[in-house]
Amino acid sequence: MSVHDTRATFAHVLTRPVFRELLATRVIAIAADVLRTVALSTTIFTTTGSPLLAALAFGLAFVPQAFTGVLFGALTDRVRPRTLIVGSYLVSGTATGLLGLVTPPTWVVLTVITLIGCLGPALNGTSGRLVADVLDGDAYVLGRSVMSMAMSFAQLGGLAVGGLAVAAFGVPDALMISAAAVLGSGVVARLLLPDLPAAPGDGNVVRQGLTGTRQLLADRTTRTLLLAQWLPPAFVVGAESLLVSYALDRGFTTGAAGLMLAALPVGMIVGEFLVARFLAPATRQRVVPALIALLGLPLPGLAFDLPVAACCALLVVSGAGFAYGLGIAAPFRDAVPEERRGQSFTVLSAGLMTAQGLGPAVWGAVAEVVPIGHAIAAAGVVTVLTAVVFRSVPAGPRVSPPPGRPGPSPATRG
Question: Rounded to a whole number, what is the distance in angstroms from the first to the last CA of the chain?
Fold first, then answer.
């Protein structure tokens, strides 16, 4: 039985030192990021009275990620992982602290949010590279699952605590709490993460980033695996962005809208746990199309006048479909070049964030011309169609390494 067919356990994954420390720092930092976003959105709305500007506080961080992920993705291989992670936390925490100490104009706040967003692809790519480096076979897939579930908990916790913190302490103190948490994550990462080496490389980083991205997208296997991880979430997040408008249009309370927003991540946590815990590695890959379809199938139900509980139940079921990513994790890790693994995860993160940023714009435009429930239903139908497109998970050799650089031998593959 190969390492990819051997079942791992959550307990085994959580006892791996590097993964454990990385998980702790990422959870704290993401919860702090959500707290910062809630605080800044609150202060922008109270200052300007503009819902659009307040919404930009949530979305602007996604805007630069496609560019920085492509142009500077090679940094995740050329720079030591610990150095890049600690540096990102230092910059983000310091910028957040400065926003808490002073009261800058709105355009300055939005600019800082955009600049912080530039760090996202490199930080996510480096984290993905570390997980792939320290976990093998099924342990890697379960590690991705644990990381994903923990991120969902962190986001839910940040949203829940964010509003309370802003109400109890005010925006400046809430921002200082966020900054302290991020800087604390940086200190923990500096003390506990090993100083793993960077991959060998030379030449211009931007040129290497463009070349590497072009090679990843030119290879049929990696291109398909990337698109399979980008498109279904883009459609579902587009539908999710309409839930508040949908709830209010139906005459539901704002509390009901909040329950509907929480339903998708709850379903994702449940789905990830069940698929990771009870399905064998080969089975996870076989059920990828079915799980993608599960993402979209419940959404057309929102076109009907269902009660809040039924809407939430449909959204929980839909969220469970996000577990399809567990069947793609190992094939993607094995398909990308080991010496460009960090850049591959950076491109994956940048594309995912960009797709999730564009999804709300596209389906929001659809909802301008059709009833909101019908727009959500349409997003579900398109998601189901992607299940047909990605009806099998491709697996194959890694994409070719850059000219002049030998690829890793089969013995070095994780």
Answer: 15
Provide the Cα torsion 73, 74, 80, 84; round to 10°: -30
What architecture is the 1-209 domain classified under in CATH? Up-down Bundle (1.20)
Please state, in angstroms and as integers, the Cα–Cα distance from residue 169 to each residue in 33, 37, 175, 177, following that order: 17, 15, 10, 10
Q: Where are the domains of the chain?
A: 1-209, 216-395
Rounded to an integer, what distance in angstroms lies between the CA atom of residue 53 and that of residue 44? 7
Please name the residues in contact with 167: beta carbons below 8 A apart, sequence gap of 6 or more. none
Q: Are 51 and 331 in contact (CB under 8 A)?
A: no
| Token pair belonging to 170 | 């005010």
pTM (two decimals) = 0.74
Q: In whole angstroms, what is the distance from residue 98 CA to residue 172 CA?
A: 10
The pair of structure tokens assigned to 67 is 């560019």
pLDDT at residue number 70: 67
Q: How far is CA 403 from CA 209, 356, 390, in A?
A: 14, 34, 31
DSSP 15: T
Furthest C-alpha separation in the chain? 63
HEC assignment per residue over 171-235? HHHHHHHHHHHHHHHHHHHHHHCCCCCCCCCCCCHHHHHHHHHHHHHHCHHHHHHHHHHHHHHHH
Q: Please, what are the averages of pLDDT over each run of 10 residues along the chain (414 residues)? A: 58 84 90 86 79 66 70 73 90 93 87 84 81 82 84 76 80 92 92 78 69 82 91 89 82 79 87 88 90 96 93 95 91 82 81 80 84 92 92 58 39 31
Looking at the domain 216-395, which fold is it?
Answer: Growth Hormone; Chain: A; (1.20.1250)
CA dist 183 and 91 (Å) reads: 9
**Dist CA 161 CA 178 (whole Å):** 11
Q: Distance (Å, rounded) from C-alpha 329 to C-alpha 249?
A: 38
> Do the domains 216-395 and 1-209 match in fold?
yes
- pLDDT value at position 165? 81
> CB within 8 A of 49, min separation 6: which ones?
none
